[in-house]
Design brief:
The chain folds into three domains: 4-103, Rossmann fold (3-Layer(aba) Sandwich); 132-201, 2-Layer Sandwich (Dna Ligase, domain 1); 207-449, 2-Layer Sandwich (D-amino Acid Aminotransferase, Chain A, domain 1). The protein is globular, with a radius of gyration of 22 Å. It is built from 15 helices and 20 strands. The longest helix is centred in the middle third of the chain and has 19 residues, at 174-192. The chain is of the alpha+beta class and 450 residues long. It has an eight-stranded antiparallel sheet, sandwiched between helices. Strands 3-2-1-4-5 form a five-stranded parallel sheet. 35% of the residues lie in helices and 27% in strands. The structure holds ligand MV4.
Length: 450
């Protein structure tokens, strides 16, 4: 097992990793920018190292500074959290070259899944159902037209270096295709330095359902069920739940086994998320994330597993603590992402938290790095914390969420809490009746009514 883990992140996820290390008796090193001197992850870590000025590129993304912090502290492993360097294959390579464990997959697997064309090719070869589309990159308009005619319009042009919604263009008719291709290619080239694009059938009203997987890097893998993350705004998830209201046990088991078998076959190591669009009872792979995700606590709630414990175990070569037969799904969980943002305009609202009270009680978890008197800096994402509630049934979970939202107090900054108070009372949400466009449509209607 590792002696000392350096946590190359900040905020709630740095605390989340720190807690797992403490439970495992592993010493912790926090790194931080000068904007985060007073951050909770710095206060709670055994040691801390300042790695640079506020801009992330100079601190949390600064590989030489993080390596120096490893060297100074004698850390034998790095946990990257999510975002920042978590899916940076070069970082994983560099750590390996310095004999420091990267708590995550191999650099090669990060690289494959970071290239969306390569990821799709790999997924398909491993038996995962994919969205109908081009076999690889499309290079000329005539070839694109041939593929589009075969799969049928509307089609979506996606950037291979994109992901998370960046660099996508819809072509509704053959007349739109040429412009969609050239625009997507130009935007991808400018944004990512890679103008490779591919074509997919455009799905109109899917849900976003993702499967949590875990591999031991030695050919064993399990799935931990799915999460429904359809409620998003501008490709930012707002509300995530497990199970998906749209799936039954047989569907869960079928897609879960497909994913676990694929991960076993590729000898995947660590936590991964296989993202699907789900429409008319069919799953269509879109991307794979090779990191721990923000919404992992809903999976923890319904499986009772600690995903960061498992990440650390497999990175240390100890294998998973469970087999597939040990994994049991218990009840329902919902996570609300509480952002320091205006609940109507979503404009960031950094500043000092003048009063803070966390909710508690049965089935309520808050993962947050903030405290009363803490000042949210303007340099990073606006996530203040996550409220995760668990109940035996979805209805119990919703009742508990309503109660927890009533208890929580965050004063001094604007937050998205009022949005969740509205959502929990909404008949569509209560019925689990929503797709990837529901939230944006709801917000547009609410803005009009106001
Ligand atoms: C799609 C799609 C429809 N059809 N692919 C957006 C983010 C990226 N992960 C993939 N995305 C989409 N891919 C096909 N073939 C619609 C989206 C999409 C979306 C997906 C998940 C959650 C929210 C979304 C919002 C808009 C579009």
């Amino acid at each position: 097992m590792f002696n000392k883990v350096l946590i190359a992140n900040r905020g709630e996820i740095a605390l989340r990793v720190l807690r797992a290390c403490k439970e495992l008796g592993i010493a912790t090193v926090a790194v931080h920018s000068t904007a985060d001197n007073a951050a909770m992850h710095v206060r709670l870590a055994d040691e801390s190292v300042c790695i640079g000025p506020p801009p992330a590129r100079d601190s949390y993304l600064n590989i030489p500074q993080i390596l120096a912090a490893c060297e100074i502290s004698g850390a034998d492993a790095v946990h990257p959290g999510y975002g920042f360097l978590s899916e940076n294959a070069r970082f994983a390579d560099i750590l390996e070259a310095h004999n420091i464990a990267f708590i995550g997959p191999t650099a090669e697997h990060i690289r494959v899944m970071g290239d969306k064309i390569e990821a799709k090719r790999t997924a398909k070869a491993l038996g995962i159902p994919v969205v109908p589309g081009s076999a690889g990159a499309v290079t000329d308009d005539a070839e694109a037209m041939r593929v589009a005619t075969e799969i049928g319009f509307p089609v979506l042009v996606k950037a291979s270096a994109g992901g998370g919604g960046r660099g996508m263009k819809v072509a509704h008719t053959p007349a739109d295709l040429s412009l969609a291709l050239s625009t997507a290619r130009a935007e991808a080239g400018a944004a990512f330095g890679d103008d490779a694009v591919y074509l997919e059938k455009y799905l109109g009203k899917p849900r976003h359902i993702e499967v949590q997987v875990f591999g031991d890097g030695m050919g064993k893998a399990v799935h931990l069920g799915e999460r429904d993350c359809s409620l998003q705004r501008r490709h930012q998830k707002v509300w995530e739940e497990a199970r998906s209201p749209a799936l039954d046990d047989a569907q869960r088991q079928r897609i879960g086994e497909i994913c676990a078998n694929a991960m076993a076959k590729m000898k995947y190591r660590g936590a991964g998320t296989i993202e699907f669009l789900y429409e008319n009872g069919e799953f269509y792979f879109i991307e794979m994330n090779t990191r721990l995700q923000v919404e992992h606590p809903v999976t923890e709630a319904i499986t009772g597993l600690d995903l960061v414990h498992e990440q650390i175990r497999v990175a240390a070569g100890l294998g998973l603590s469970v087999t597939q037969d040990d994994v049991k799904f218990n009840g329902h969980a919902i996570e609300c992402r509480i952002n320091a943002e205006d609940p109507r305009t979503f404009a960031p609202s950094p500043g000092q938290i003048s009063y803070y009270h966390a909710p508690g009680g049965l089935g309520v978890r808050v993962d947050s790095g903030v405290y009363q008197g803490y000042t949210i800096p303007p340099f990073y994402d606006s996530l203040i914390g996550k409220l995760i509630v668990h109940g035996r049934t979805r209805n119990e979970c919703l009742m508990r969420l309503r109660r927890a939202l009533d208890e929580i107090i965050v004063d001094g900054v604007k937050t998205t809490l009022p949005l969740f108070q509205d959502l929990v009372e909404n008949p569509d949400i209560q019925a689990g009746n929503y797709d990837i466009h529901w939230l944006e449509q709801y917000l547009a209607a609410a803005a009009k009514a106001a």
